[in-house]
Amino acid sequence: MNDRLALLVLAGGRSKRLGEIKSLVEINNEPMIKKVVKEVSVITSEVIISCREGRGKLEAIFPDARIHRDNFEEEGPLVGLMSSLPSIRREYVAVVPCDSPLIKLEVLELLFEEAKEHSGAIPRWPNGYLEPLTAVYRVEELVDATKSTWREGNMKLTKVIDKLEDVNFVSTENIKSVDGKLESFININTQEDLEKNFR
């Protein structure tokens, strides 16, 4: 259990392609978000879930977590950050999406080690693509950067990252040491994704 790290699960995205609340889509008879939280929540006792819909169901599934409803009309991950970050008490936060049911605990452990003494640790693919929603950040800096970006009227997470002073970008090639197939970065967005990965 890591007393410097909180876990924030972003579950606010709408899912028109799946036809229901994405976080509650069932995989092997349990909600997708439950698979995520069950895998990675052992890293910390401070678990926060940011949602737009289904708060009552999430509270029933996760009685020990803090469930925050997104407080803004806008959509996107910045809404979840703005709604939830102010309540986090730990120095660092691991941010994960609700739709990565193959995420590995070891990936977050590695990212936390890489985030120490930095603004955060964000996975980066060889082509330069970032995975900012499966990453670890220093809370105080992420709060400031998120608020600043929000005040500017910009909803892009990349703009938040640009405001962080000292991000450690971690190659996905290094992450293969704990997640050989990089399954932690597989997102479930469609029925075809479900069929491919779980049927």
From TrEMBL:
MobA-like NTP transferase domain segment(s): 8-163
Residues given in the record as Mg(2+) binding sites: D99
Give GO cellular component annotations, separated by semicolons.
cytoplasm
Q: Where in the cell is it found?
A: Cytoplasm
Q: Which GO terms describe its biological process?
A: Mo-molybdopterin cofactor biosynthetic process
State the Pfam families in the record: NTP_transf_3
Q: What class of enzyme is it?
A: transferase
Instruction: Fetch the Gene3D superfamilies from UniProt.
Output: Spore Coat Polysaccharide Biosynthesis Protein SpsA, Chain A
Catalytic activity reported = Mo-molybdopterin + GTP + H(+) = Mo-molybdopterin guanine dinucleotide + diphosphate
* Enzyme Commission number(s) of this protein: 2.7.7.77
- Tell me which UniProt keywords the record has, alphabetically: Cytoplasm, GTP-binding, Magnesium, Metal-binding, Molybdenum cofactor biosynthesis, Nucleotide-binding, Transferase
Binding-site residues for GTP, renumbered to this chain: L10, A11, G12, K22, D70, D99
What the entry lists under InterPro entries is as follows: MobA-like_NTP_Trfase, Molybde_CF_guanTrfase, Nucleotide-diphossugar_trans
Q: Please, which domain of life does this record's source organism belong to?
A: Archaea
Obligatory cofactor(s)? Mg(2+)
UniProt GO molecular function: GTP binding; metal ion binding; molybdenum cofactor guanylyltransferase activity
Q: What role is this protein assigned?
A: Transfers a GMP moiety from GTP to Mo-molybdopterin (Mo-MPT) cofactor (Moco or molybdenum cofactor) to form Mo-molybdopterin guanine dinucleotide (Mo-MGD) cofactor.
The Swiss-Prot or TrEMBL note on domains reads: The N-terminal domain determines nucleotide recognition and specific binding, while the C-terminal domain determines the specific binding to the target protein.
Q: Which family does it belong to?
A: Belongs to the MobA family.
Q: Which PANTHER family match?
A: MOLYBDENUM COFACTOR GUANYLYLTRANSFERASE (PTHR19136:SF81)
Question: Which named protein is this?
Answer: Probable molybdenum cofactor guanylyltransferase
Write down the species: candidate division MSBL1 archaeon SCGC-AAA259E17
